[in-house]
Amino acid sequence: MAAPARALYRTTLAASSIISPRHAPSLVRLCTLARGISDIATSAVPPHLAAPTPPPPPAHASPAPKPNNGGFVARTSFTTAGSITPSFFLGHHKAGLDRMKESVGSVSLVIECRDYRVPLASRNPLFESTLLGKERVVVYTKRDLGMLVLDDKTRDIMTRWHHPHTVFFSDTTSRGDIQTIVSYCQGVARENDSLTGLRILIVGMPNVGKSTLLNALRRAGTGNATKAAKTGGQPGITRKLSNTVKISGEEDGLIYVIDTPGVFVPYMPNPQTMLKLALVGSVKDSLVPLITLADYLLFQINRADPKLYKQWCAPTNDVLVWLRAVAKKTGKLLKGGEADVEAAAIWMLGRYRKGLLGRFILDDVKEGALEEWIQGEGKVEESETAARRRIRKEKSEARRKKGAGALGGAVE
C-alpha cells in the first residue's frame, strides 16, 4: 500500500502546477488526504498485529549423513590405457582343440570347467560347436575364491544359464563338493552300463582348474591321492591330451577321465574381459602391463569393498598412490627408500589369487547377463587362421615402430 499512496501524493502535487486557480481549494484538500494515506502506509505495524516470528531450528538437529569411507567415491567405469593383447591363442591351444574334436566321439560325458570368479569371461564359444550333442556337466571351479558361502540367488541364476545341463559348484578342498560330482558320474556310468566303462572329457579355458579337479575326483573316487595330472598357478601346464585316468572302480561304475589343455578363444573383443582373465590367472601376466592389471584389481576391489586394503592405504582410485603405500607398509623398497611399485603390484595380485584380498565375482551375475554377454562379445568374430595372421601382423608392426623409434632417437 505504501508505494501507491506515495505515487498518489506525487501525482497530486504535480497536478497543482497546472490546474486552474478556482479548483485550488479542492486540490489542497486532496493533497492533504494523499499525504495522510502515505504516512499511514509507511508507519510501523503495531506489535499486536504483526505475524509471529518462526522459531529458530533446534540446536540439537542431526547433521547431514556423510558418505561411506570418509566421502570416497569409487570409479564406476574402467578405462584401459594403451593396447592390451586381444588373444592368447597359442599353438598347443589349436592342437588341443583339434584333438578334442577327434576324441569327442569316443566319450559319453563332457565336464566343462569354468572359473567361478569369472563365470561369463571363462566361457569359450568354441566349445559350443565342438561339443554339440554331447551330455555336458558344467563345473564352476574355485568357488571358495569367489565367495565363502554360496548364496542361493547366485547359484540359481548361474544354474539357469545352462539349462538343461547339470551344474555343480566346486571347492576342491571340500570333499563333499567333489564327492557329489563323483556320485553323479557314477550314476551316468551305471545307466550306460558299458563293459569298457564311462569315458569323460574335461575341457575349459586355460588355468580354470581342470587338472586340479581331475586329481580331486580321482582321490575321492578311488582313494588314490597321488597326482595324475600336473597342476600350477600359471596357464599352459597341460599342453596335450592326457592318458585316461580312472576315477571310479567297477563296483561303483567304471569311469575314465581324459584331461585336455586349456583352450583360449582366437580373439577377445573386449579388453576388460582380457583383464578379468589375466586377473584370475587364465592368461600369462606378461601379456598385460603389470600396473594396468594392478589398477584393474584396485578398481574391482573398490567396487566390492575399499576396506579390504585399509591396513595398507586409505581408499583411493589412484593405483600409484595405492601401490606406493603398500610398498612402504610391506618394506618393498628400492635403493634410497623409493617404493617398488612393481613388487607391490605382484604381491597384491598374488594375494588376490589366493583369496587373501577379498572374495568376489568379477562378472555381473544377474538375470539376462548371459544373453547380454553373448550379444556383446560371446561370439568368435575371427577364424583361428585369421586371428593368428592378425596377431603376427600386429607384433611385426610393433617391432617396426620400436625399431624406427630407436633409430630416430640415435639420430637426434
Features:
6 strands; disordered C terminus; Conserved Hypothetical Protein Ylqf, Chain: A, domain 2; alpha/beta; Rossmann fold; six-stranded mixed beta sheet; 412 residues
Give the rounded overall mean pLDDT.
78
Annotated CATH homologous superfamily of the largest domain: P-loop containing nucleotide triphosphate hydrolases
How far from one another are the termini?
A: 85 Å
Task: Tell me the fraction of residues in β-strands, as a range.
Answer: 5-15%
Number of domains: 3
Secondary structure tally, helices:
14
- Please write the string of helix (H) and strand (E) elements: HHHEHEHHEHEHEEHHHHHH
- Can you tell me the residue ranges where pLDDT is under 50 for at least 5 consecutive residues? 11-21, 30-66, 407-412
The helicity comes to: 40-55%
Main sheet: strands, sense, barrel: 6 strands, mixed
Please give the radius of gyration in angstroms: 37 Å
Instruction: Give the CA-based shape.
Output: globular
Secondary-structure class: alpha/beta
* Largest sheet, spatial ordering of strands: 3-2-1-4-6-5
Second CATH tier, the architecture of the largest domain: 3-Layer(aba) Sandwich
